[in-house]
């Protein structure tokens, strides 16, 4: 029955999807904002669905922007957050990859706090008016991140009684509980479906809030062009070339990778390439001096995505043992090139990587365990390392942008 309904809804080209998110890319040269939601919406448009996206832009009191202008680089380097130095005063509409996007300001007195109820109602009214102008009546409304999307979806359901609502959690359970407190159970009643960016996020949610009915996992994908046609890694020798790709911030522990390699390779026969920016680079440079590893480490900073692919091809192993990851596309990119990949246990990529099958897992920030994982890999037969590399590529082939977007919308339609 579900299969028949899915096939029917796929053929129904008028199926309308409204997506709300606090993070969405801007049509600017700098293109501030991650494309995590846009990867889905643009693929849905290609599939023939009618899609509209709403970027819920948090707007703070003016003094915050004065501070941001003076300290933008420092804040970004410390937290990895997107720092807006210009205050949005009115809604904006733009088209990105054939996806109509409305950027709407919603007032928020303090970071990580509650949005203004009045501002939320005003934003919802703007969404309704914009939809009416464009003859758009949503069949499903999807909110990424609960604050304030869980409130907005409830208000929008009042405007569209037949609509189905969905919230996708990115690991922000603590913020949701802190902001909504006793209101949370009532707000959750208006949500018909729950999606989660990874299995650990789902498990954390159910431990804190309670079980949800028929949840689904909402993975992100990579462009199919990232997947190597020829695996250039043969692993006839132990791991020698390592790469770290990500922000150089506290919760990602980039310096721990260097600590582990210094422990494993007493003869210093390794090379580590760091790709990314952030305040932890100062600590890394200090350790390079203390360990005498200036010749073993390269720091490339931020480089174009296509160039990163070349670095994956040079590396035997990609390592990032970070904390607080809802997912982690860099792991998938590395796997697509055949790198042996080490990610964090109980974080966003646990479940995609199965330890010892298509990659390896390590406790976040644990340099001692990371040393043992690398030694374990080096002790494996060549054929075993090659098998894990091939399995990594096979995993990436199942998680392309188009395939995960289809899985995502199929999961929603099957539950509608």
What descriptive keywords fit this protein?
single chain, 416 residues, alpha/beta, 8-stranded mixed β-sheet, 15 helices, disordered N terminus
Instruction: Please tell me the overall pLDDT.
Output: 91
Proportion of strand residues: 15-25%
Nearest-angstrom radius of gyration?
22 Å
- Poorly predicted spans: 3-12
User: What class do helices, strands and sheet pairing give?
Assistant: alpha/beta
Largest sheet properties: 8 strands, mixed
Helix content: 40-55%
Number-wise, the strands total 14
- Which sequence of SSEs, written as H and E, runs from N to C? HEHEHEEHEHEHHEHEEHEHEHEHEEHHH
Shape: globular
Task: Describe what is shown at a glance.
By secondary structure, the chain is an alpha/beta fold. It has 15 helices and 14 strands.
Structural account:
The chain contains 15 helices and 14 strands. The protein starts with a helix and ends with a helix. It has an 8-stranded mixed sheet, with helices on both faces. Strands 11-10-9-12-13-14 form a 6-stranded parallel sheet, with helices on both faces. Helix content is 41%, strand content 18%. By secondary structure, the protein is an alpha/beta fold. Strand 5, helix 5 and strand 6 form a beta-alpha-beta unit.
């Amino acid at each position: 029955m579900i299969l028949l309904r899915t096939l029917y809804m796929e053929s129904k080209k008028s199926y309308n999807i409204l997506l709300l998110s606090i993070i969405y890319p801007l049509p600017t040269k700098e293109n501030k904002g991650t494309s995590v939601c846009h990867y889905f919406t643009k693929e849905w448009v290609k599939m023939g669905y009618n899609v509209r996206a709403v970027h819920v832009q948090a707007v703070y009191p003016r003094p915050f922007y004065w501070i941001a202008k003076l300290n933008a680089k420092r804040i970004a380097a410390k937290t990895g957050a997107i720092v807006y130095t210009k205050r949005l005063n009115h809604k904006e509409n733009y088209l990105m990859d054939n996806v109509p996007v409305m950027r709407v300001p919603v007032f928020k007195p303090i970071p990580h706090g509650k949005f203004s109820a009045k501002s939320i109602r005003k934003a919802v009214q703007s969404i309704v008016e914009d939809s009416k102008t464009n003859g758009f009546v949503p069949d499903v409304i999807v909110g990424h991140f609960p604050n304030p999307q869980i409130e907005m979806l409830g208000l929008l359901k009042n405007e569209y009684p037949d609509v189905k609502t969905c919230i996708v959690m990115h690991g922000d359970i603590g913020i949701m509980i802190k902001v909504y407190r006793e209101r949370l159970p009532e707000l959750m009643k208006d949500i018909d479906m729950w999606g989660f960016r990874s299995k650990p996020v789902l498990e954390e949610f159910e431990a804190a809030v309670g079980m949800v009915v028929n949840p689904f996992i909402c993975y992100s994908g990579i462009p199919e062009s990232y997947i190597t046609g020829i695996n250039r890694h043969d692993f006839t020798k132990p791991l020698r070339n390592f790469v770290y790709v990500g922000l150089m911030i506290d919760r990602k522990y980039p310096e721990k990778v260097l600590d582990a390699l210094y422990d494993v390779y007493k003869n210093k026969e390794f090379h580590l390439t760091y790709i990314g920016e952030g305040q932890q680079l100062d600590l890394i440079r200090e350790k390079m001096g203390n360990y005498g590893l200036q010749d073993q480490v390269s720091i490339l900073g931020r480089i174009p995505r296509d160039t990163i692919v070349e670095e994956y091809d040079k590396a035997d192993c990609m390592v990032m043992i970070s904390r607080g990851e809802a997912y982690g596309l860099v792991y998938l990119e590395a796997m697509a090139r055949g790198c042996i990949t080490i990610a964090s246990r109980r974080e966003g990529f646990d479940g995609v990587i199965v330890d010892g099958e298509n990659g390896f897992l390590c406790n976040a920030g644990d340099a001692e365990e990371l040393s043992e994982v690398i030694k374990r890999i080096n002790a494996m037969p060549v054929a075993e390392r090659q098998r894990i590399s091939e399995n990594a590529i096979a995993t990436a082939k199942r998680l392309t942008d188009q395939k995960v977007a289809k899985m995502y919308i199929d999961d929603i339609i099957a539950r509608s």
